[in-house]
Amino acid sequence: MKKQIKRYAFLVLIVYGNSYAQTKKHMDANKPIEDRITLLMKEMTLEEKVGQMNQYNGSWDVTRPKPESGSNEEKYNNIKKGWVGSMLTVRGVKEVRAVQKIAVEETRLGIPLLFGFDVIHGYKTLSPIPLAESASWDLEAIKNSARVAALEASASGLNWTFAPNVDVANDARWGRVMEGAGEDPYLGSKIATARVKGFQGEKFDNNSIIACAKHFAAYGFVEAGREYNSVDMSNSKLYNTVLPPFKATVDAGIRTFMNSFNTLNGVPATGNVFLQRDILKGAWGFKGFVVSDWASIGEMITHGYAANAADAAKKAAIAGSDMDMESNVYVTELAKLVKNGLVKESVIDDAVRRILRVKFELGLFDNPYKYCDEDREKANIGSKSNNDGVLDMAKKSIVLLKNDKNILPLKKSGAKIALIGALANDKNSPLGSWRIAADDNTAVSVLEGMQQYKDNSLIYEKGTDVAVNKQSFLNEVQLNTTDFSGFEAAKTAAKNADVVVMVLGEIGFQSGEGRSRTELSLPGNQQQLLEEVYKVNPNIVLVLNNGRPLSIPWAAEHIPAIVEAWHLGTQTGNAVAQVLYGDYNPSGKLPMSFPRNVGQCPIYYNLYNTGRPTDKDQNVFWSHYSDVEKTPLYPFGYGLSYTSFAYKNLKIAKASFQKGEKIEVSVEVTNTGNFDGKEVVQLYINDPVASIVRPVKELKGFELIELKKGETKTIHFTLTDKELGFYDNNGKFLVEPGLFNVMVGWNSNEGLTTKFELK
């Protein structure tokens, strides 16, 4: 019977589609997309055009008949009028089909909707948070992680994700560092490209979803690391640090951008002509469309940039913000503004053409229900292959920060192990922030992962709760600072153990949007627990769960082994256990520097030299702190392995090159330890004299290699004008002659050096 119903529904769709195609010229799939857009737009009223620029949140049960009253009734009615271009948070095949049916079958022109959702690091089956994935430096794995997310999201009816976040950020106080790729524009650009290709695929079949680069632009540099705060920066920083990852997504074929909440040069990004018209759609030739962040058009009134809703709509549209997410000002104001001569209809036409282009490219006009297959939904969500994929990504994301006396890997038999920490038995926090489609408490805990190794004696004690309230996406985490009742049981377990594994750090909702912090130490009373356990048994492996760099100077000095395990998603416990027991040799490298204390923030490796970088005269008047070193605790690019690697014979083909010549760099890397392993070989350059001061180091190449123990490989890098050049304060790309220093090594602070001259 079910098969007969599906067959009947398919026949109805074919009949409807054929009838529709006969009456609407833009439905002719043989015509070029641009011609189809032109034909459709000729049929559209001004109000229908503006409707395409309107996005609503699906805040009611969309599978039921129309809502009875309020804003949801208005949204429903506007969908039926054809005054809505996109919905967000409507997910699931049943729900998507119900709303798409209204748009396609009950409106005058039948224009299909886009369905967007925050698929940030997975849909139901979660990969590590993006910052953690970036620690893998494995572009193929990151691309595959985005592909897993796209498979599940598209199977659930979605066709658009508000990712990747490509904000370069170097201030760990900002909670949304968990959502990006860290502090470096070169690494960030490579990862941005990988994620776009993973989400969008090679072609827009029903396994692909549209990607969205955000937040355009400079949101990663909010002052004091405080969410939604202002941004004030130089053009040099904007062109050379902030914009490259965004440009990389355009080059990778991304179809949408999201603007940001912050101001830049005193103008909110949503109303910023310079960003959206001059750079994105002008200099870069971007053909997709720009969506506002949630209600950011209306928020320009609060900023003090727009007088009222009409003024906000006018300024945002003229600036190039094509779609209004939940401000509701385009649908109420734009048509009137055009009729009153305050906004040119050509501005509306440009935005609508961009939005329709994406819908045609997705194939929604030819098959509006292409993402509505319930059988595919059931087969894809939570599948074994998806879980295998996120487990692989999780293992590759782990960074070994310290391993004195080779305490790791753990013995697999005959050892007494005490596992301590509330996060060790937590199935929710490892899911991280931005996981709104995932079910709570579905992560494999570290306890569950370690229990798979049955030949050791494993005792678990909580020690202390991190928080005293139930955590949710909307609520602040209230930390436990007064209850020490579990300390004694934890100390007893530790005292009788050969090795103590302590899982400490942040709850999953302590990082992410709205989660700025002024303290980066272990939250609550976890630091006291760590020190008390250390007194009875210093043989500790500290496993960190967190969404940002933490300040852990005491642990770095005292604890023999430290593992940065982030929030690793659904397969967290299995990934951590396999690394601790040596079934996977960690190879991750930090994508952000770890500060010694919060007072160093922002801290990053690619800083500028000052006029007084050192104490040449042996006095106090140089660039430093009087109470702590100015260097990071752990620098960008840092990460250990269970094996060791030796670098030698760094070579450049010749001493000088002409501008435009390719510069070949090579280095030999040998696995000198007792384990097979992976190493991220990193290349940095420095331009010591330039028309604009350049950073002391800039990453310009990296290679993830695998070496058997005792094996040597020669690694080759090629530098071109693209790597050697930089942007001036007017956005012009320059390649200037002179001396260049080159470092190839194992992190941003250590390596072999050489130099060459560009003539």
What's the quick description here?
This protein has 759 residues and is of the alpha/beta class. The chain has 22 helices and 26 strands.
Explain what the structure shows:
With 759 residues, the chain is of the alpha/beta class. The chain contains 22 helices and 26 strands. Strands 11-16-15-14-12-13 form a six-stranded mixed sheet. It has a five-stranded parallel sheet with strand order 4-3-2-1-10. Strands 18-26-25-20-21 form a five-stranded mixed sheet. Strand 12 (416-420), helix 17 (446-450) and strand 13 (457-461) form a beta-alpha-beta unit. Helix 2 (33-43) packs across helix 14, helix 7 packs across helix 15 (374-380) and helix 8 packs parallel to helix 9 (235-251). The longest helix is centred in the first third of the chain and has 22 residues, at 2-23. The protein starts with a helix and ends with a strand. Residues 1-22 have low confidence and may be disordered.
